[in-house]
Amino acid sequence: MENKLLLPEANIAVQKLQPYQAGKPIDELAREIGFEVDDIVKLASNENPLGLSESVKSALTEMLSGLTRYPDANGFYLKSELAKKYSVSNDQVTLGNGSNDLLELVARAFVTSAHEILFSEHAFVVYPIVTQAIGAKAVVVPAVDFGHDLTAMLNAITDKSKLIFIANPNNPTGTFLAEDDLYAFLEKVPSNVLVVLDEAYFEYADIIARGNAIEWLSEFPNLIVSRTFSKAYGLAGLRVGYMISSPQIADMLNRVRQPFNCNALALKAAEVVLNDEDYLNEGVALNNCGMRDLIAFFDKYAFEYIPSMGNFITVDMKQSGDDVYELLLREGVIVRPVTGYGLPNHLRISIGTEAENQRFKDALINVLNLAPQI
Ligand SMILES: *Cc1c(COP(=O)(O)O)cnc(C)c1O
Asked: Which of 196, 128, 187 is nearest to 162 (CA)?
């Protein structure tokens, strides 16, 4: 056998992929710098600093003995809760193992290597990964003021375009598209091109400005609204997200998903927390407070930041963001470098609790030798 040492080759598109770079885990940094886990502050993955909702904690404890059973493959109860909340029917809801799972399902169900997928410069990094994994062509439309340029995106549509990803608010820039502008955009997108409106940070966005794109679904059958329980609902570790679309699109997504893509704990936790308005409101209020605090800090030290509608803020460090990131790590503070997003001088900081934000501010003062705060 001459070919004994020839290993199987992955698809060319897969070989060219760069794996997703997650925020540095707390345990990992604790090991590296010899800190206790509790002394590390992680403001790197836009997680909810409130901790798990108490209502979810007790519901999950009650579920443990049932874990020998497979979960409900159709997520009936969670779908029903979502359908009720958003005044849609159950067959318009698709559940995912996080919304990342769903972003990939859309591409796999609708797009081939003959198609183009459009998204903005500085947009969420999962879009290029998903595009490349299926060998489709990525059309990256230059941003304006760090946000989506909807006119340029319309102009970039060709007869090969099949899918447009729009994150609103966008990660990592926090930029936000006004409801009217989005609506006017959707009116001009050809109906055979899908638009995924990724609203992972919807609950943090200004309640008036954010409108409700779900109400547009009857008018735009090519629209898919994507949301998640990972951010404002505080369930990032359980992995559950959802898409709301026409029943026809949901049917197609349902054909390609794994039968049990949402586990039993995740389904239950999401169902419970969706009705826990106090938890949601407390988290949003904490975020608004922390955002004001960090903005005041950046203003005071004349750092430019990108105004954000999310639970994070992206700031120009006026030097290599990667270098400042490394220095902050040594202080036990994990933030997110965004060089991979074409922003080499910026850092993205998730809004934490008051104490966590303070640790970040102190650490930055320390590593950059800023004048101490009065
Ligand atoms: C965090 C985030 C998601 C959500 O990811 P999950 O898989 O639901 O945890 C989706 N889109 C954007 C833009 C995000 O920042």
From this structure: 196
Pocket of ligand 1, beta carbon within 6 A:
46, 98-100, 124, 167, 171, 198, 200, 228, 230-231, 236, 241
Cβ contacts of residue 131 below 8 Å, gap of 6+? 107, 111, 117, 119, 137, 138
Give the DSSP letter string of 130-142: HHHHTTPEEEEEP
Q: Do the Cβ atoms of 212 and 181 come closer than 8 Å?
A: no
Phi, psi of 6 (to 5 degrees): -80, 115
- 27-53 pLDDT, tens digit per residue, is 999 999 999 999 999 999 999 999 999
**Calpha distance 271→369 (Å, rounded):** 47
Pairing of β 93-96 and β 241-244: antiparallel
Query: Candidates 45, 95, 99: which one to mutate for ligand 1, based on the most atoms within 8 Å of Cβ?
Result: 99
pTM of the complete model: 0.95
The type of residue at 56 is V
